[in-house]
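Contributing new records

If you add data, match the layout below exactly. Sequence lines come first and carry their own label; structure lines follow with theirs. Keep one chain per record. Anything else will be rejected by the validation script.
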Amino acid sequence: MQELKLSSWLPTTNKEVKIRGWDELDVILFSGDAYVDHPSFGPAVIGRILESYGLRVAIVPQPNVNDNLQDFVKLGAPKLFFGVTGGCMDPMVSNYNANKKRRDKDAYTPNGDIGFRPDYATTVYSKILKEKWPHVPILLGGIEASLRRVTHYDYWSDTLMPTILESSKADMLVYGMGEQPLREVVRLMQKGVPFSSITTIKQTAVLLDAEAKIPKNINWEDVEIASHEVCLKDKKKFASNFKIIEQESNKLAARRIFQKVGGKTLMINPPYPTMTEDDIDASFDLPYTRLPHPKYNKRGPIPAFEMIKFSINIHRGCFGGCSFCTISAHQGKFIASRSQGSVLREVDKVANMPDFKGYLSDIGGPSANMYKMKGKVQEICDRCVAPSCISPVICSNLDTSHKPLTKLYQAVDSHPKVKKSFIGSGIRHDMLVPEFNKNADPKELDDYTEEVMTKHVSGRLKVAPEHTSDPVLKLMRKPSFSYFHKFKERFDKINIKKGLKLQLIPYFISNHPACEAEDMANLAAETKDMGFQLEQVQGFTPTPMTVATVIYYSGYHPYTLKKVKTPKTRKEKDEQHRFFFWYKDENKTWIKNTLNKLGRQDLLDVLLPAKTEKWRKNKPSGEAKHTFDDAVPFNKRKNKVKYRGKKKRR
């Protein structure tokens, strides 16, 4: 591997700027993360993209906001603009858990140390820069800005906040993946167009003064949503906004969105088309060192980097549209896949790293098995407004062939220095079930599943059914849990056929909108009946720009405007979560009392049977996992009335 010099990284100090022989900078980036020069870290991608346009770019990672603010002036003023991002995660998610308790580790900081990223980092950085350099344009990007581009609910302050452009005082916001809009911003500025006049670039948002004239674009249709002030007074209006926002975010020919905020007007321009293969290859093929900046060498490892150090991202976007997930809101619903050649070039770089031992930790993306998937007839996709391509059913126009992905795996494994490549990203198990993926070739689905299980799993295969309740799953935009049963049957069959000893690890969520205590009891009983003792579980955390968060705050589903109940109190949340851990002694008395109050003796008999049961945790072999009532599946038992009392709320 070529020896790296300090100048191999984007400069972070005046000394590093001088090493490059620069006396002026075009763009200075501020980030809430430590600087890792790797294509999985957004600030590095943006820096390298700007550099590829011939700009002189520097980055100030995790500037100190608690001293004399020297970090905000040390590099002077850039010629074009400041770029500001809170980092690869929303800072509030980085700093706090679902119970609003401060985390004791920050994965994007050396040694996992906390205290280097302020709450609402994008706003904090931007306001400081605007005070220090009032005449220099500020452009926001990254997931915090992207998901807070319009009136949004902030869980941590329990308030409805306006667009982040208002609170940050920034001049422009780029939402989603920034390569395409940035290219146009830079092109216009290099032609001498004032930043204040750049208002019609796709995938950007600006806040117009009351007296400003609305820019015209004859190719765009416009739509106005309820103002921020109306949303503050009317939760139903706030909820109704989201349907428009989500649909326009996912459309290939979207409308321009307007929203009044105080005496100003927020203007959100339509997104760019999905990146082409050449576009996304160009982004990943930039000269990243793939390493943290040397300034961190004595501070300890950066956990987020260590996790993806030997991984390869093969695509962006997700067409799942899950109600609790922000991926499609930021990366888009349509899949942008890299070419096999680009992936293999990155594999070669990783394989030649000095400490590579032959094992790739992940060949994946937001969902591991969506590579190269797209609409069969593009014109149908062009007209589509559905937030998900696979809920409630898989779209008949969606090509879900796993052949390109299987071929890619085989090409990666043929590299002489690769001993094994793992799939660490979550796999959409439902797409591997012929009963759900009815237009796919069942043999192809089995071939892919077998390929993954025999060659790309280290003991455990992780999937995310998320819940067992049909009403909750419907709201989540996830398929019926019956398809997880079907997938497990296929998983067990391959396990036996190949003599493997793999475990299937399902992920579940508690406290989701529409979920009640009885649903969680059902979940615990049904998964126990399948032989699972759950470990991979989490409580629902409301984050901006999701259907579930809108419901959590407003109480209304944005698409139907019907009321939906959501657990909100700490007591409700803790009690739902306790059902996950029915096997812990400290929970047994509480579970017994709760199920007796609910009149669910059937569930109690499964979770805490009076007679000592011969039950064993789920094993990878094909032998019986338990002996109680083994011949009858839990969801088929005659003495069980599942979802009792729910129909009237559906």
